[in-house]
Amino acid sequence: MDIKTAFEKFLERGFEFYERVLAKFSVRWREHANRRTIITLVLFGAIALYAYLSIIRPPDNFPIAILVTVEENMPLTAVAEMLEEGGVVRSSFALRFVVAATGHEQNVRAGDYLFKEPKDLFSVARAISIGAFGLEPLRIRIPEGATTKDMEKIFSLQLQRFDEENFRVLAFPLEGFLFPDTYFFLPNATEELVVRTMRQNFDTHIVELEEEIAAFGRPLPEVVTMASLLEKEARKYEDRRKIAGVLWNRLDKGMLLQVDAAFLYTLGRTTYDLSTEDLASDTPYNTYRYKGLPPGPIGSPSIDSLRAAIDPAKHSYLYYLADRKGTTYYSKTYEEHLQKKRRYID
Predict the structure, then answer these.
(1) Is the distance from CB of 157 to CB of 201 less than 8 angstroms?
(2) Cβ neighbourhood burial of 46 (10 Å; 0-12, 13-18, 19+)
(3) pLDDT confidence of 222, banded at 50, 70, 90?
(4) Paired strand residues for 321
(5) What is the pairing mode between strands 328-331 and 319-322?
(6) Which of 199, 203, 227, 260 supports an S-S bond with 271, CB 3.0-4.6 Å?
(7) Is the dihedral of CA 203, 204, 210, 216 positive or negative?
């Protein structure tokens, strides 16, 4: 046998061995394919679960319904670190990676964000990339007759950027000139915006009455102050007109107004809670002690009270009182007033 023939036989045996080994390996591969598939799936599932639990899912202290601010010109690194510290995301590195991978690394949107429910990493990344701030107007009702102190409490409960102390400084000089109404403010509205909006609303409504006020002949501050008293003294429009007639009559005659509602503003007490000491208290709002209108409004009057103040009922009554059911009685003399007080109040 020559060398060529021997080599050919060697190759032939080698190929046969290779085919046998390959056949056995193929059988074993098929036998264990399901097991390997399961192992692979379990491995990838474990990795995915770990990634979700440690990186993707919202942190346990996620700030629900709390404003989160991204400052103007804030780099992505600083934004990501701020959001991690604030409990919005679990990993600042992961957030930077996702934002950069979507091509928004250079244009993260600045502003106030509000999340009504916990958001995962990808949702947060999308929000700051496209400016999905999540801010929706809040419906805030300021009731008729509300004082600036009442407004302060109402707004501070709903507006997260609202500074109560600054509101007092801005609003107190405008007592009575901030119109009571239903307002719609974003959660990040400031006290400056609130005061400006309410004053503009007042000016808009007062335009409707400009001609009537001019014809009535009293300056606007007096009209608003009178209207604020009427707002507290009666609920029905006709009663407000009659009481306006009484109070303007008393002012014209130089009499004390003796309006109990002013004590609600200064002392927080109603007619039936007042004591002798209260009636003698030394405050410019004490209309039992000082003649004329109070130094300013005691709340924000409605448009009805403003109308009643400039359209008082024409009569000669100088006294009035209301029973506990809200019915108002009018008198021309003090003796008649005392009789009705004994009959309906005492």
Answers:
(1) no
(2) exposed
(3) very high
(4) 329
(5) antiparallel
(6) 260
(7) negative
